[in-house]
Amino acid sequence: MLPKFSFVRPTSLREALAVLEKKDARIHAGGSDLIGCLRDGVFDADALVALGGISELTGITTSADGGLKIGAITTVAEIADNDAIGSNYTALAEAAKVVASPQLRNQGTIGGNLCQKPRCWYYRGDFDCLRKGGEICYAYAGENQYHCIFGGDMCYIVHPSDTAPALAALGAVCRVSSPTASRSVSVDALHMPPSQDPQRETVLDDDEIITEIILPRAPAGLRSSYRKVRSRAAWDFAVAGVALALVFDGDTVRSARVFLSGAAPIPWRSKPVEDAITGKTLDGGTIVAAAEASVEGAEPLSENGYKIELFKGLLTDQLEAIKPS
Ligand SMILES: Cc1cc2nc3c(=O)[nH]c(=O)nc-3n(C[C@H](O)[C@H](O)[C@H](O)COP(=O)(O)OP(=O)(O)OC[C@H]3O[C@@H](n4cnc5c(N)ncnc54)[C@H](O)[C@@H]3O)c2cc1C
Ligand code: SF4
Fold it and tell me: Would the pTM count as exceeding 0.70?
């Protein structure tokens, strides 16, 4: 059952920030994740601040440097269907297209997708685990087949967002406002690893709102992609996924940004893969080396060792698919 809370509908960012400053309030964008968390007792709130009536947070526009600005309450469906994103930032379009179901893509926003809570079944269930302020992680010695193989430390979630690894690979930056200041946070630094604080998912303070996401101008030679593997053919979260943003000079990879999903509590940057392919052509030997590198340092739990071969296969397929023909 939903707890009692007040629901505030500001029409400007200033008004929304003023409510966050005064009340124990949570931000409501599409509500597709937030309402489930409140209903399931994951946390509570005195007030919800709805962003839906704030027109300055909407829309996809070209920025002064030729990149793109995406308002934080732009829906995932609008991003999936946008022509400029499809042609210049393919990884983001591909990621948006595989988020949840058509209904959830119409309801869910890009800001909410980046800030959604983890899907660990203990956290979402009746378990007072470490992330909810309890003493222990139930997944570590329990049912952990969908948990992390990198970056686990006290808590072993995987980050649930598909758009976050794609945006991180593309070098996107969030503009963030609080009642007193504004700042920029790059998407690759937005999420908080459990080693820093197992009860927080992002570096944002409670009174900070993501207002827009900025994609830099796509460099000449950029090719990008996102693909995830799910445990069933229907809509589902990533068991394993990879976002690639490679800049080619002819057949040679001039620079590479590679992020894994379904791998770690945050979108996981794979420097070993980047190092294995930068300055190389994607021939058979390079791809085999990169696939091996993708699992370097992995520490599978008792039930998720299968992810090792999954990531190796995924990397192999995606590098084969992205190389210039
Ligand atoms: C059944 C189901 C399946 C799903 N499958 C997938 C999937 O396969 N892949 C995937 O990526 N996602 C998946 N999702 C998550 C879904 O995409 C998110 O629920 C959605 O994107 C969240 O957007 P929202 O606007 O509804 O966020 P809300 O529910 O409104 O908010 C989510 C969280 O983000 C915070 N927040 C929202 N906007 C901002 C902002 N601008 N600034 C700061 N904080 C903010 C809220 O306070 C809240 O904590 C699934 C969800 C469900 C319910
Ligand atoms: S993995 Fe994290 S969220 Fe899940 S039970 Fe352990 S501490 Fe809780």
Answer: yes
